[in-house]
Amino acid sequence: MKVGIVCPYGWDTPGGVQIHIRELAQHLIDLGHSVSVLAPVTDESAIDVPWLVSAGRPIAIPYNGAVARVLFGPVAASRVRQWIANNDFDVLHIHEPAIPSISLLACWAATGPVVATFHAASSKQKAMYAVAPILEPALEKLRAKIAVSESARRTLKDNFDTDAVVIPNGIDRAKFNSPAFRAEWKSPGTIGFIGRFDEPRKGLDVLLAALPQVVSRIPAARVLVAGPGDDKGYQKSIPANLRNRVVFLGRLSEEEKIQFFKSVDIYVAPNTGGESFGIILAEAMASHTPVVASDIPAFVDLLRMDDGESAGEIFTSESASDLAAGVIAMLESDEKRVILSERGYELSAKFDWDLVASQILDVYEIAMSAGESVGLSSDNRPWNRLRDRLGDN
């Protein structure tokens, strides 16, 4: 099968959608399929895989409580059409077509077996209402729609009154079975956090606000913080008596991330919103690392087992006191950590790429059932209508 995949966000900027697409593409290639991925790329000299095609340099826009690096406009539209024309794709898989980026351009440009995955989970927004009349006809062209979680599916239904099959993000579960850890990171009472820590919705402020209460019961408690951000600037906001309990590690390689999970006693996800899945939680569970997570819908859904029980400790989002109580309960009970780590590891099997990719391939087969390949639409003007409408709102 020849598969075209479109990534809406800057490829060289860390993000869950980019990781999902990279791992999906490589898994499909390993299965014997031919894959080409089109994405905005800031530094083309850093492209490290032969199947990636640059659509041009992205620009930064605020989106869903963060900053998205996307690419849009007539030049990008021409590059999208050329890429589609130069490849005889059996199926085109676009990600996040409901935002102004090359995925939306591909949705407009392509005909035939086109599949879309929706990642975002957010409440209805004024900007979404402004462009919905133009987006809806494009979304109607889709042969199949995938949402990465129930939260993403609900967002799609709320904004566009259409539905999707839920297929989660994937992980390479086997690689997290490694017993490796870092001696300098591993000590009793160690709490792990991974994310863009200076982005408020990631919730590190909530975790650090809970830390004094945790330390009062667990004197050895400390927090390892991994991920991009201005750690020197952020450290200034941490009370002086807590600074030696917060260690900033910077960005981790994949090998270091595995060692990180093996080195911490618990992993905490204090996110306050804007999440549609939570790939880090799936990876922590695959590592046998017990999880404490806020009760945002995406995390509650992800951690729910078939019997209705949770595979993690849930606390009230943005409540430092409730988070502290959950962390203390976990760190004080070896039995509780063992039970939740076993539940989490069992649950992580549903996110393994062997299963997830199989489900995605089933969707491809449905989209391809009519027998034609991906073609080009004769209408190359919709992006002009979107630009005009955005200018009016």
Number of domains: 2
Q: Helix count, per DSSP?
A: 14
By CATH, the architecture of the largest domain is named 3-Layer(aba) Sandwich
CATH homologous superfamily of the largest domain, by name?
A: Glycogen Phosphorylase B
Helix content: 25-40%
DSSP strand count: 17
CATH C-level name of the largest domain: Alpha Beta
Give the helix/strand class.
alpha/beta
Mean pLDDT rating: 91
Query: Sheet with the most strands?
Result: 7 strands, parallel
Radius of gyration: 22 Å
Distance between the termini: 42 Å
Main sheet: strand order: 3-2-1-6-8-9-10
What is the overall silhouette? elongated
CATH topology of the largest domain: Rossmann fold
Low-confidence stretches: none
- How much of the polypeptide forms β-strand, as a percent range? 15-25%
Commentary on this structure:
The chain is an alpha/beta fold and 393 residues long. The protein folds into two domains: 209 residues, Rossmann fold, CATH 3.40.50.2000; 179 residues, Glycogen Phosphorylase B (Rossmann fold). It is built from 14 helices and 17 strands. The strands form four sheets. It has a seven-stranded parallel sheet, with helices on both faces. Strands 13-12-11-14-15-16 form a six-stranded parallel sheet, sandwiched between helices. Helix 4 links the parallel strand 8 and strand 9. Helix 6 packs across helix 11 and helix 9 crosses helix 12. The longest helix has 15 residues. The relative contact order is 0.14.
Tags for this model:
393 residues, alpha/beta, Rossmann fold, 2 domains, 14 helices, elongated
